[in-house]
Amino acid sequence: MGTIGRRRLLESAGVFLAARQMSVGRVSLAPAEPAPEGQPLLLKDFEPRSMLHVPETKVPRSRYPVIDVHTHLSSVAKHRHGVGLGEEMQYSATADEVLPLMDRKNIRMMVNLTGGVGKGLLEAIAKFQTPHPDRFLTFTEPWWERSNQPGYSQFQADEIARAHKAGARGLKVLKTLGLYLRENISTGPLVKVDDKRFDAMWEVCGSLGIPVAIHVSDPEAFFLPIDRFNERFEELNNHPDWSFYGGDFPSNAELLEARNRVLARHPQTQFIVLHVGNDAENLPYVGECMDRFPNMYVEMGARIGELGRQPRMAKKFFEKYQDRILFGTDAVPHGKDTPQQIFTDKLYEIYYRFLETEDEYFDYAPAPVPPQGRWRIYGLGLTEEILKKVYYENAARVLQVKI
Ligand SMILES: [Zn+2]
User: Whole-angstrom Cα distance, residue 392 to residue 68?
Assistant: First the structure.
């Protein structure tokens, strides 16, 4: 570029700057330094706002009453290396705190999955289910810390029967099994999901007619290196302890196959496979499993980000398996780390919008940055018949409750 050319460029840049300062002076809004070309921007600071002009439907209440089969109002207080220990419980909210939101959002019933064991379970039942039997159900959990003791199989089966008598309406199995529980509880080799010591536990749930809500594995990306190719990079970078890449962890596929062997061995037991079987990224595979195992149900908690980014595939899945999909959110009152799970009005409005409308490209979580991957979702616009089944009919059948 010659001298004249460069001067012209500077002059025009000067004019541009002067005009910019004038208009800024008028609105008295101090601009940041004029953006140099190629300015670096940290990924964490990138919050693009969609410029799409598309319908935005607010769905303050669900079309039909809801049973949220996946919530956490209580949990076992003590943990070591991901394994819950003992009977002491902690609570994220009281019944009186959550009931007004439930009423506003048309949530008829919440299932508190992590109800603990022994005295803790009795306490959790007494706090929610006993005073409000038509609004709260409680599930019990396995006594992991006894899983390496002689006679565990029988003890565990007896405990489930005892818990059921005390009011527990199902068994919840966290991803502890497969990813944290070890032969010496927190040390030694990992215990397999299909380890025979749990057969009596699965079996007794079937004979009592109570479902097992089971979380096996985690999103596929959690089993891959935390690098620039990982679609959940930001989330894993913020929570490196959520990664199951390397070490002695089995692969996602190995965990799911072990789960399938459990489903096959216990056909009389109904399994609510949480988080769309932790393979919402691979709905053809989840469908295959549903076809193979009539005792398999799925729940959608914290996976509308996955379902909603493949709305055509997801809609077909909902149509085909409409009798075996249960509404759930994985909601926890007063959470902080995981906006996709915090028990708020906003959270339920997003789920309802996803299921009921055909809105396009909206946030799957109430957060400035999509927390489970940088994308947005599309509504499924399900029919009234399917909505009714997913919102409460399927759950009412599995849980044997009247709505
Ligand atoms: Zn959960």
Answer: 8
Q: Among 318, 334, 387, which residue's Cα sits nearest to residue 66?
A: 387
Q: What pTM was computed for the model?
A: 0.90
Q: Would the pLDDT of 201 be above 90?
A: yes
Q: Which CATH superfamily is 62-399 part of?
A: Metal-dependent hydrolases (3.20.20.140)
Q: In the 8-state DSSP scheme, what is residue 371? A: T
For residue 316, give every residue at least 6 positions away whose Cβ sits within 8 Å of its Cβ, in sequence order, or none: none
H or E segment to which residue 109 belongs:
strand 107-112
| Separation of CA 226 and ligand 1 centre (Å) | 23
Residue 7 confidence (pLDDT) above 60: no
Q: How far is the CA of 71 from the centre of ligand 1 (A)?
A: 6
Distance 286 CA to ligand 1 centre (A): 19
Q: How far is the CA of 330 from the centre of ligand 1 (A)?
A: 4
Q: Which of 391, 355, 329 is CA-nearest to residue 403?
A: 391
Domain locations along the chain:
62-399
Cα 72 to ligand 1 centre (Å): 7
Ligand 1 centroid to residue 315 C-alpha, Å: 24
Residues 95/103, Cβ–Cβ less than 8 Å: no
